[in-house]
Amino acid sequence: MNIHLRTLNLSAWIALLTTLIFPGHQATDGAARTDFGFPFPFITQYHNEIMEGHRWLLRGIRIDLLYFLLDVAIIYAIIHGLLYFVSKFKSQKK
């Protein structure tokens, strides 16, 4: 199976944009945090008073690369499957 780089690039961008499109999920157990990402959250922002005084860009943020790659793989499979079925449907029409 060939990996289509355009589809892989598109799926990576869609996975990143889901952090802006879908609202974050605030966890009720453990530390005060907000999880971002769909279908699996891969960005976690922690909220505590120590970090509120410092306004660094990535302070209090954890990025899970494995979950990001898993999201990209799921979105890639969905897009690739849709393109496959569209091409099969178009070939049957002819």
**Low-pLDDT windows of residues:** none
Instruction: Give the percentage of residues in beta strands.
Output: 5-15%
The best one-word shape is elongated
Query: Based on helices, strands and strand pairing, what is the structural class?
Result: alpha+beta
Helical region count? 3
Mean pLDDT: 85
Radius of gyration: 18 Å
> Which range best describes the helical content: under 10%, 10-25%, 25-40%, 40-55%, 55-70% or over 70%?
40-55%
Q: Could you give the order of the helices and strands? A: HEEEHEH
Ends: how far apart? Answer: 26 Å
How would you describe the oligomerization state of the chains in this entry? single chain
Largest sheet: 4 strands, antiparallel
The number of domains? 1
Could you walk me through the main structural features you see in this protein, from its secondary elements to its overall organization?
With 94 residues, the chain is α+β, with helices and mostly antiparallel strands. The chain has one domain (5-93). The chain contains 3 helices and 4 strands. It has helices at residues 5-21, 49-52, 65-93; strands at residues 25-26, 33-36, 43-46, 61-63. It has a 4-stranded antiparallel β-sheet with strand order 1-2-3-4. A hairpin with a 6-residue loop joins β1 and β2. It is elongated, with a radius of gyration of 18 Å. The two termini are 26 Å apart. The model has no long low-confidence stretch (mean pLDDT 85).
